[in-house]
Amino acid sequence: MVLLEAKNIEKHFGGVAALSNGNITCQKGRITGLLGANGSGKSTLSKIVTGVYFADSGTITYNGEKVCFRNPIDAKRAGISMAFQNLSLLPHLTVWQNIVLTFEKKNRFFLNNKDAKELSQDILDKFLPVFNISRTVSQLDPSEKQLVEIAKAISENPQLLILDEPTAALEQVQVNALFNYMRDLAAKGVSMIFTSHRLWEVLEICDDVVIFRNGKNVGELDFGKNEKSPDDIIKLITGETETIHHVKTYRNTADETMLRIEDLKYGKFLKSVSFELNKGEILGIGGLQGQGQNELMLALAGNYREARGDFRLRGKKINLTKPVNVIRSGMFLVPGDRQVEGLMLKDSIYKNVIFPKLAFKKQPVFTPIKKYKEECRRIVEKLAIKTESIDKTVDTLSGGNQQKVVVGKWLNFDTSVLLLADPAKGVDVGAKRDLYQFITKMVEENNMSVILYASDNEELINYCDRVLIMYEGKIVGELKGKDINEEAMISMSMQVNVRNGEGV
Amino acid sequence: MHTRTNIKNNDFKKLFSRQESAPIIIFIAMIVIVASIQNNFFTPSSLGNSINSFAPLILMAMGQAIVLVSGGLDLSSGTSMALMLCVLTRIMREDNPVSGVWALIVVTGVMFGIGLLNGVAVGYLKLPPIIATFATSYMWLGIALFITPTPGGECVNWMRAFFDFSAVNNMPDGLKAFGAAVPTSVLLIIAGCVVWYIVSRTKTGRYMYAVGSNRITAYQSGIKTAKIQTTAYVLNSFFLLLCALFFAAENQAGSARIGDPLTLQCIAAAVVGGIALSGGRGNVFLAIVGAVIMSMVSKIIFFANMPDAYQTLVSGVIIIVAIASSAIYSTMNERAVLRGGR
Lengths: 504, 342
Prior knowledge:
Shape of chain B: globular
Strand content of chain B: under 5%
CATH superfamily of the largest domain in chain A: P-loop containing nucleotide triphosphate hydrolases
Order of helices and strands of chain B: HHHHHHHHHHHHHH
Number of helices of chain B: 14
Shape of chain A: globular
Largest sheet of chain A: 6 strands, mixed
Strand order of the largest sheet of chain A: 6-9-10-3-11-12
Distance between the termini of chain A: 54 Å
Oligomer: heterodimer
Largest interface: A-B, 30 and 25 residues
Number of strands of chain B: 0
Number of helices of chain A: 17
Mean pLDDT of chain B: 87
Helix content of chain A: 25-40%
CATH class of the largest domain in chain A: Alpha Beta
Low-confidence stretches of chain A: 241-245, 496-504
Low-confidence stretches of chain B: 1-8
Number of domains of chain A: 2
Number of strands of chain A: 22
Structural class of chain A: alpha/beta
CATH topology of the largest domain in chain A: Rossmann fold
CATH architecture of the largest domain in chain A: 3-Layer(aba) Sandwich
């Protein structure tokens, strides 16, 4: 039975068409995957279905009736809930206040907080055992926030549940718990729309899949009838006729030490981290999420004044107490949240790329704009950033291209170490490959080193020469060359879990 | 290793690392200082006088706190309070007790008018609160000056109850005695607290925090943000009305300029109390703490016998120290946790 059918949906933002011909059909009790590169119109379509945006043209039929939701409240009342990727949680409210938000029940005069807490605890118990729901959302880590977001959508008892990249911030165990719960919901007749950049997840959980490219449907596959072929799907997503598998070459890194970190401590996040980074090496940081990887990257970039330890770059002692010191010594961070920490979104590509140069290199009295624009164009070309002009603002670029601008900022300098904090998060398959290929090339040409933290193990496996596994702020394992594979990494991150559970 | 003292110690630490603890520590310190320089601070009559002189700022800061929590700001609170005061004293005739009733009816209408206009400008028209309320503040001042060009007006005798029960003729002796023990200003503040307590336990109160936390997200969650923001401004207006009633009863006259210095003071009081200007955090009770701290500052300066010329400068310094110390206090706490490795 068809629950929802959206036909010929069109949506323009300013003069740009975000969606030129969007179609999707949801069957009752089935999970429909929505695939596509960033900016292909998936999120726009989801938001139109939930009433966040208003379609320029097209029809939506829901439960056999033509509908037109003016706002998210209308959609929720009709039984359509969405868990947003850029979370819809309110940071200063507690977890349970967020979950029952707009569905609060009263007992006689006042809000019934007891029932609200019980309801929230019941749902969260399925993903997050032993979780204090009275904390405010601002105190949670990203994966917890994402699960609360999902719990919130589920608590509304929807007929259609839209999950926009719910797994991007989750670790494997949590993804499995979520998938189990999704299957339960589907068995109860709830329809779901699921989007993810991780293809295997879509293959695992979805009953059928719709693929988007440039605001249009380019394919629909019913896994009941069609074969699950990743290569075919990637072809549809990228529009390329041939998919290129990354062929990994294990490079012999010179035994010369580039960076030596000894006994790095930072609060409860980092407990005595020590490692060495060789010249020309791509060193991966892995492990379950939230084990101090992000803090390690930020500490190395000089963001924590309270970080303690002994740090040497090319044998010379360096000071990690201020970002300025770190940048001057040739270590650059590509931060995790590029839109907030890495870019000035409303400024042009030119300004973003040249800005660090103005800040950290001696400048003539009058800025040689022409010369700098030329340099900026070279960098844009080198990184193959897709844009009409370097004067376009950064927020007009897609996620992958934005990330390239962040990397491009540091091409003005001689780089010793590049710190990459989850650079491919929310970047589509094609752009991800481009980005990593460029970084690999950079490493080979410039004799520099890279520390890469990625939440997706596949990226570490494909591009790293060595991987360190972190657990509770400590490095608990190391994998080298051919030993780096999914099983080894997961078992290394989990074994510790088991041991800890026994209370050793 | 988890002995009992250990746990207690941790709880103690937790108590002191809470964000609200900094203003409360300053609050206690201020009372100690004032009590030590003013010998009779704790006698009932002096305490009553102190509270009466603090009350207007406290009431205005409470209203301001509600607006701040819901993500707004009210730069018109001083002039809107003055406008209500002028309306009251202009309508009332000392020899006609019924005129007090009329005045109350009209001023209630004015209260809603002010709150709605500010709320519509900020909530529905989405004007930046600073600009919108700055503009409306001139409107209120203009109207107030039109009604009361020079300070003046009258107050009916029964309305003096808003300042002091014993000032009212024919007041039963029991109530007079009660009034002598508990100043009316305390009752007004308690009334304000009760109103906030009730509101904070309804959807409207919850949603104020939601809107202040992030307006766009709140809107997308299905909250009528404009309505909530307007409600916050109307509630603020209610607190300003309480303040206007207090002034009318105390001075028995109105002045269009009486609220001018209070606007920024009440915002500063809310901030000293630990309410975030960015919205979504704090409550009315913290505003009271902040307002008392602010009032203590002028008290200290008064009792320190400082030359007039330096008073303003010193009060500025004390206020900035108060705000900075609460900020420094919380960063120091954080640092200590991070350094300690625990």
